[in-house]
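Ticket reopened. Same input as before:
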Amino acid sequence: MRESLNRLLWPLLALGLLLVVNALFNRSFFYVALVDGRLVGAPIDVLLRGAPIMLTALGMTLVIATGGIDLSVGALMAVAGSVAAVLLVQYQSSLGIAILASLTVCLLAGLWNGVLVTLVKVQPIVATLVLMVAGRGVAQLLTDGQIISLSGQPGFAYLGNGLLLGIPVPIWIVVLTAIALGALVRVTALGLFIEAIGGNETASRFAGLSVRAIRLFVYSVSGMLAGVAGLIYASNITAADANNAGLYMELDAILAVVIGGTALTGGRFLLIGSLLGAVVIQTLTTTILMTQVGGASIPPEYNLIVKAIVVLAVCLLQSKALRGMLLGKRGDA
Amino acid sequence: MSQPLVEMRGIVKSFPGVRALDGVDFTLRRGEIHSLMGENGAGKSTLIKILGGAYRPDRGSIHLNSQPIQPASPLVAQRLGISTVYQEINLIPELSVAENLSLGREPRRLGMIDWRAVRRRGQEMMQRLDLNIDVTQALRSYSIAVQQMVAIARALDENAGVLVLDEPTSSLDAAEVRQLFAVMRRLRNQGLGIIFISHFLDQVYEVSDRLTVLRNGKLVGEYATANLPRLELISKMIGKDLAAVKEMEARHGAPRSETPHPPLLAARGLTRRHALQPLDLEIHAGEVVGLAGLLGSGRTETARLLFGIDRSDGGALNIAGASVARHSPRTAIRRGLAFAPEDRKAQGIVPELSVRENIVLALQGRRGWFRKLSVGRQREQVDRFIKALGIATPDAEKPVGQLSGGNQQKVILARWLAMQPRLLILDEPTRGIDVGAKAEIERLVGQLCREGMALLFISSELDEVARDSHRVIVLRDRRKVAELHGHDIDLQNIMRHIAAQPEGSPAAEPARDPAAEPEGNHA
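Engineering reply: fixed in the latest deploy. New output:
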């Protein structure tokens, strides 16, 4: 427990720092109000816009914990949106079927990643690179490279823009997914197995764990959660945009996991940390968009650079070696 | 008497929760080989890491040639002439010997690496160890022993006065050990002070002039090797009285009558290309079968085939009456097998996970994802084994990676004992662990076997194999060359079969080179 708190310390500090910046330069950030039964304000906006990062980061956490990585999540977001749009618009299928079909496609895509990694023994970064490239290609083929508008689909729009008890639906989806996934890994022995495999795969195999099954599982979950994120995104912009949906999302998800205190080398993982990491990333984006310097807003071009600097800072803070150097000690003990 | 080369006085070093060294004095003289003895956790590694600049002491002083020094980093220590060679060889196998020797400090001419100088210097450095090898060959084309010597040559700067060898012999065979010892004696005679750490008592007695014994971070004493009988040394290391140690040493596996029951495990012509020639093997319940042989003789390969890690190319395997065709660790475990691998760190423990998680791993693996052991049940099991095996850990939640080697081994044993296996395969269970833990593991082997468990005991410490086994299978060059029963099981016999010497000729006894005896003063 204490160990978990230690790992959460730095992302919490990063978030705190961002909030302080907002408190100094950007008071309106904290403004939350109930307008027409809908909660509005920057904090709500952060959670709403951050939902896709949070969902993909949850899946990514499990994959990274086994010592792998999943680069295909961004492309799978595009696939999910495209499959749903094609079914809804061109085939007039029901909402349920469209959602089910796109999530199934993404689950199978994740399973495919898992098969490449476990059975064909391709390195995870290469195996998922295949779908990162091919997935977006498939999405573009499905939509003929066009943006398919979903404006005539009120049911689908509810996913990304709807409200439940005054809170946007995507936030509900994130919370419920996180709880379900957390329960799945911690109430069962799955979490232990994942951490054991990430900590020492050979030892885990020799102890009789079904390393393959667990790998297949985590990649499948990652694929499916990317699908959920893709549906929310498409609903949010009421369109399936195969070119831009989920673009660079894999990087944001990986960053969220790393900021959240799960090592890229695998082993111990923290789902709540990854959620926090995603919130840090999204808060940063929102902060940059809202902050006024000398009466003018910061041009959005700075967004990526500032993001990189903050990510670097968080990673440096987490680095034991650097902390040791600053404290004048070497990596003893 | 030689004058002190290194004097460490009142060294104190604490880590969170442990006082690793508590006011330890240590003196190394010129021209001596000085063994540092103690159980795991006694403080040996901490002491040499302080001398080698990897740790800084909390208190205490270090003098080198009567000058106070503060080795603040390994580099500083190296410049002061203190060279350390660790157990793992940190060289690049693909590069040539000469390139390895010059790596990072290549002689240059006009800004280009002077390859001729690299070769010449490499040759000179190896000749200092009296080793004439072709330094242009890739390092990996040489035996581990030679690679080790290259590591030593690399560590020895021209100005080196102190050489620290941490477990240098653990992956060497007997001939290679002799070769290493010849080099050590040569360097000693050149006036170096050598600190030697080894778990092999025979080697310590063969090569060292003096011993310093540590226990629980405290100095027990310094002795001339010749004046300290072996049993006395052991009693000093484990802090038990002599009588108890003698009793431990005297214990012998009682010869067993042939069991009428069908064997628990039977292999017929089990084979795998490049690993094992067709092997017949039977193991009965309640029996300890020893597997003896040199490194690479097929010991570990046999264990891997039995446990389903590697697939056999031919032969039949029968476990508990059922024929086994396709086999994996998972199915082997289902059939009641357990395997404690040789390379504990790489194949046994999950260092980041806690003692508790490591112990329940196999048990939970058998139960599957959904039938999770309740935390209460886990605790109960884990506490029982921590107590029964005497695992030294402040609590069950400590990461296993932070325990000593002996305790890590006990954690792996606990993992398997919790499964109540029918056959436990122990591959080098006592490697790199202290004398006390070794004795405990040997005792455990005897006890488990009396309770009806079958054990396959693999060890390169032949006296252990001889002492603990009811039957010994000797392997040489991936082939079974002998199977010894009852009274035939003794050290000489096993060694004769390993060495492939005809009956009656003297067993290989490492001869001491008279020219390499201590020569007294160099100061």
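The longest strand of chain B covers residues 4-15. Chain B has four domains: 1-81+159-254+501-523, 91-157, 257-336+423-436+452-489, 345-420. Please confirm and we'll close it.
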